[in-house]
Amino acid sequence: MADNLFNKVYNPDVLSCLANLSNDEVFTPPEIVNRMLDMLPQELFRSPDTTFLDPACKTGVFLREIARRLIKGLEPLIPDLQERIDHIFHKQLFGIAITELTSLLSRRGVYCSKYPNGEFSVSRFDTAEGNIRYKRIAHTWKDGRCIYCGASQKEYDRASDLETHAYEFIHTTTPEKIFNMKFDVIISNPPYQLSDGGNGASAKPIYHLFVEQAKKLKPRYITMIIPARWYAGGKGLDAFRNSMLTDDRLCIIHDFVDASDCFSGVEIKGGVCYFLWDKDYHGECTIYSHQGDKIVSKMKRPLLETNCDTFIRYNDAVQILNKIKQFEERTFDSLVSSRKPFGLATDFRGYTKSKDLSHSLKIYAQKDTGYISPNQILKNKEWIALWKVYVPEAIGSGNMGTDVVKPLLGEPNTVCTETYVVVNPTGKKQIAENIITYINTKFFHFLLGLKKITQHTTSKTYSFVPIQDFSKPWTDEELYKKYGLSQEETDFIESMIKPME
């Protein structure tokens, strides 16, 4: 009976359909789950003692695919199928659902019944939870924020009939007490972010909290699929980024610049990655770069190159960057202003549409231009009379090759809002124009893209770009020759950056 029921309801196509839904809590396709499981030592699935935890169950797909492997792997040890299933589901597979709905969905996906103590469950439990628990947790507020996840009290202090999104695994200082047991493998696709109550769609990342909490449980292995924005840090991710890039137990990273290569139809700016952390491993990390359904490169290397504080995402870029660094030139970030170069925010609207005696300065604002009074400038007034280059502060999605920097020549008596940053205010128009020729090269965009993983392009994003002699204009051919790049290396740059206008 167990054999027939298991085969009849074990249908991966249902989860494949769910995996195409777009949400911050992205459902994981079964094929991606199996690629993640392939990174683990396969003898784990032949042992009746290996324990697995998914601390953020949505569909139960991780536990279900693990069950598939254990059912096959344990057959020689436990020949009877029902006995084998009972052992696996009761002793080896555990999950924590993120909402009440996903707890029901996960139980149905794993036990073939949303009530594992019911007659249709492939393995009967004494409780309606089985080993996939859900507990409604309240945030712990302090000064308007949750002390565990940083959620905004204004956004998430909700009525009892609404989901709190206070995920149990990360809302405790003692996660080991949730199941009171030791896990060999922690595997998951955790929730990515929560609204932080800021302007527009502002959100706070939380996926790193699941990784950090998993490490506290001291498992043998951790594998999770998360946004790749952590490579660059920022917005609460700096400490996490530093801990990951200096952790020599991180042994494999599969990197997807385009998240839709993992999650069909879903846009996640900066892409996604899944990784393997091995408690007993110490060494360099093997980086797999994916494009479409192919692995385009594989390299075992340090997560941080010598004299480099940034993770180089593209394997083929490492040697190129090292050649450029040998010149020991000043870098372009020293020419780029901080945010709000004239003290005016993005939403500044205190300008007129026509020029007059009192409104004599042209202003470049968000998708608009106008005129303001010199008295409205809050800082860097000495730049007003100079030539400069304006570059958008937010550019595209954060994916190399898709984001084109479109500089503007800023003549004297012009300013800008926070929509732009200012590059190299100068008394000479020719220098500003030559800077623009440099910005318009693929060489420039390639080096910028090594640092840029979100749409925001602050001064530090330009720190791989060397400063040139701007008494002359520049072309890609001149730059490739100057730095001694091989044909293979220039072909790689050309392939990564779409044609400049």
Short structural description:
It is built from 14 helices and 19 strands.
Describe this structure in words.
- The chain is of the alpha/beta class and 501 residues long.
- 26% of the residues lie in helices and 18% in strands.
- It is built from 14 helices and 19 strands.
- It has helices at residues 2-9, 12-18, 30-38, 61-73, 81-91, 100-111, 153-156, 207-216, 238-245, 317-325, 429-439, 442-451, 476-482, 487-496; strands at residues 52-57, 93-97, 132-133, 141-142, 145-146, 185-188, 193-195, 203-205, 221-227, 250-256, 272-278, 285-291, 294-301, 361-365, 368-372, 387-392, 408-410, 414-416, 420-426.
- The protein has a nine-stranded mixed beta sheet, sandwiched between helices. The protein has a three-stranded mixed beta sheet with strand order 15-14-18, with no helix packed on it.
- Residues 4-14 and 16-23 have low confidence and may be disordered.
